[in-house]
Structures are given as C-alpha cells and as structure tokens.
Amino acid sequence: DLSHVYIIKRFDKAILIDPSHSINEIKQALTGYDLQYILLTHGHIDHTALIGQFECPIYMHKEDFELAQNDDQNGSKAIKLKRTFDLKKLDVRFLTDLQVLDFADEKIRVYHTPGHTKGGLCFLYRKELYTGDTLFKSGVGRTDLVGGSTSSLNKSLKRLFKDLPQNITLLPGHDEQSTLKDELKQNAYIQKIVSK
Fold first, then answer.
1. Distance (Å, whole) CA 25 – CA 31
2. Alpha-carbon distance 146 to 28, whole Å?
3. Global confidence as pTM
4. CATH superfamily, domain at 6-194
5. φ, ψ at 45 (rounded to 5°)
6. Does residue 69 sit in helix, strand or coil?
7. CB burial class (10 A; 0-12, 13-18, 19+) of residue 21?
8. Cα separation of 183 and 11, whole Å?
9. Where along the chain do its domains lie?
10. Taking the alpha carbons of 168, 107, 8, 124 in that order, is the dihedral positive or negative?
11. Cα distances (Å, whole numbers) of residue 39 to 51, 98, 151, 185
C-alpha cells in the first residue's frame, strides 16, 4: 500500500514529510505556500521517491544516506518504484537526535529511532508524532530488511513511550493514526517491550 505523505502548513509556510507519490496533488496542496524543507523518516523508496521534484533542503539521518541511494536496498526493485533522484546533487542536511528545527514560529523535535533502518527518525510537532515505519497502529516496523535491528527498534520504542506524554497523536507512514495511549492499550508488541 502507498505510504502516507504529510504536509504541515502554518501561515504561508509548509513542510513536507516523506513525499513519495501523488506529485500533482502535493503541488496543488502547496500552491500559495513557501515550502521550507522536506523531512524524511527513513531512506526507503516508498517514502523518498519524489524528493527530487522540489527545490528545498532535505533533512534526513546520515545513516540512511547510502541506503536511500542503493536500489538493491531501498526497496526500489522490490516494489518497482523507480528512484529518480541523486542525493549527492540535492541539498541534503543531516539531522541528529533531539535536534530542534524551526518552522514558522514553532519547533519540530527530531528523535533518532533506529530499528526499521539505521537512520530512522520520528518528528514531533505540537502533539503530533510522525513515526514513518517505526510505529504503527497495532504494529511496529519490520526489522528484517537491510539496516534493520529488533533490539534497536525495541530501544527506540521504549524511549518514545517513556519520554513522550500519552496524549500524543501517532501519524505513521502506513495505515491509520492512533495515540500513544491507545497503543499502550491495544498494541501487544508495545505492551511487551514497555513492561520490561
């Protein structure tokens, strides 16, 4: 299934998270807005495919730079989605854990959440957590792909649930949204690792 593309708008500014499909709809939604930057939760092609279509900085974790460029590892061949960008020719900037980005007059906090990939990131804006493929409603990211690690994912998830309030809305890369509170109630995987 297609991953979610998120656009956050404030005043006349916007940011784009994981642009990978529906270019016409994205450009239409951005009409009249100044696109500040793109945020990538990780380097898989179903989250990055359209990044070369925009002229703005692209923020990601350095651990996923090579992964995003490698069509044998980024999922490009598996899901038959062609990579049309070269990160070396784009304005890529690397993020670090707990870095804070400015957006309009607000802040976006970065969480490095390795597990699904080495360079997985989650982004906290207000009370919304954009989790990419780290955490889903009633599920978590798979760890059997290149750069995946179950122990790293467990640490990342445990930390998110420890550090963030339960009323945070969860906006994942696939499927429906949820809250951290609901995941503590219904997500058996989360219940298991948080109780350890």
1. 10
2. 35
3. 0.97
4. Ribonuclease Z/Hydroxyacylglutathione hydrolase-like (3.60.15.10)
5. -60, -30
6. helix
7. middle
8. 32
9. 6-194
10. negative
11. 10, 14, 25, 29
Write out the two tokens for 49.
């495919």
Residue from 136, 87, 106, 145 nearest 10 by CA: 106
Q: Tens digit of pLDDT per residue, the chain (196 long)?
A: 789 999 999 999 999 999 999 999 999 999 999 999 999 999 999 999 999 999 999 999 999 999 999 999 999 988 888 899 999 999 999 999 999 999 999 999 999 999 999 999 999 999 999 999 999 999 999 999 999 999 999 999 999 999 999 999 999 999 999 999 999 999 999 999 998 7
**Backbone angles phi and psi of 19, in degrees to 5:** -75, 115
